[in-house]
Amino acid sequence: MSSASHSKSTDSMTMALLTILRMRTFVALILVFCFFAIAAPNFLSAANVLIMSKHVALNAFLAIGMTFVIITGGIDLSVGSIVGLCAMVAGWLVLYGIDPGFGWSIQFNTIEICLIVMAVGIAVGVINGLLITRLSVAPFIATLGTLYVARGAALLLSNGGTFPNLTGNAEYGSDSFRVLGAGEVIGIPVSIWLMVVVALISAYVARRTPLGRHIYAVGGNERGAALSGVKVNRVKMAVYMFSGFCAALVGLIIASQLQAAHPATGETFELNAIAAAVLGGTSMSGGRGRIIGTVIGAFVIGILSDGLVMMGVSSFWQTVIKGVVIIAAVVIDQAQQKLQAKMVMQQQAAQQR
């Protein structure tokens, strides 16, 4: 075989391997789906598919927000605690409203409750953004701190107790609160419709708007982006605010689904969100990621979690498996980057010859 033929054969194999690596999330989705369809009883039943879809939607919300944060080169460890805090705020508002201390209280309807809770989530995102942009605190440390603060605030709201029976009050217009988590439109849960809307808008912003291009630019080369006129701090503020908004939405949906709020809600949710984003092709070094990949990654994590539960696998082993998935996703991502760099070098060498 001539050297030219050998080179073409090697290039073809490299391209094929690179294509497989790029499609790894979709391949993983097919593999886990087929495995649990065979191994787990009633996995494909309509009831289980419906429940699993709701779980996937919750993880997808957090993972989409996390994707934007990671693309900028950051991380948001506080999203799980924001979920718990926002669920508790929603529970407080549904049950008690706001008591100014004059012997009367201010009550809110469902829309007002949702807007207030979303504002709380965005406010925590603002705090994260300010710590990172104004005080130059590393994203890991800043969001780790707000993780504890938000969780502590959730516990303080009820002294560690639960807000039960969040059915709302028809007199105040809050009786429709349950629709957010338990309602359906043409047989599909409202939470899934919301996931589709958020995913489509996020994908459009990422690929078709100046903000999206700036997000990728900041993650790819922050210094270069700043020199080219990108408002780096504003971009970072925007992604952390959006991550807080997504977490607030999850807190609302969970409180509505369960018709109860507990301060421990959302614990370890940040790990699932990071896993879905990384598995979907988002680079932990920043500058690269796709919303569609993240949504597929959320499906992989959701199917994996529910499938393991249906098979009776211990929750301890489930945690181990998720950790292995995160590590494997990062290793594969690094392999893909090295392979792409190698292909570029080979192409440049061929052009020079």
TrEMBL record:
InterPro entries named among the record's database cross-references: ABC_transp_permease (IPR001851)
Task: Identify the CDD domains for this entry.
Answer: TM_PBP1_transp_AraH_like
Q: What is its main location?
A: membrane
Topology in membrane: Multi-pass membrane protein
Q: Where does the chain cross the membrane?
A: 56-75, 82-98, 110-131, 138-157, 186-206, 237-255, 291-310
| Keyword list, A-Z | Cell inner membrane, Cell membrane, Membrane, Transmembrane, Transmembrane helix, Transport
Query: Highest taxon of the source?
Result: Bacteria
- A Pfam match is BPD_transp_2
Q: Where in the cell is it found?
A: Cell membrane
Q: Which PANTHER family match?
A: ABC TRANSPORTER PERMEASE PROTEIN YPHD-RELATED, ABC TRANSPORTER PERMEASE PROTEIN YPHD-RELATED-RELATED
Task: Name the chain's protein.
Answer: ABC transporter permease
Q: What is the lineage of its organism?
A: Bacteria, Pseudomonadati, Pseudomonadota, Alphaproteobacteria, Hyphomicrobiales
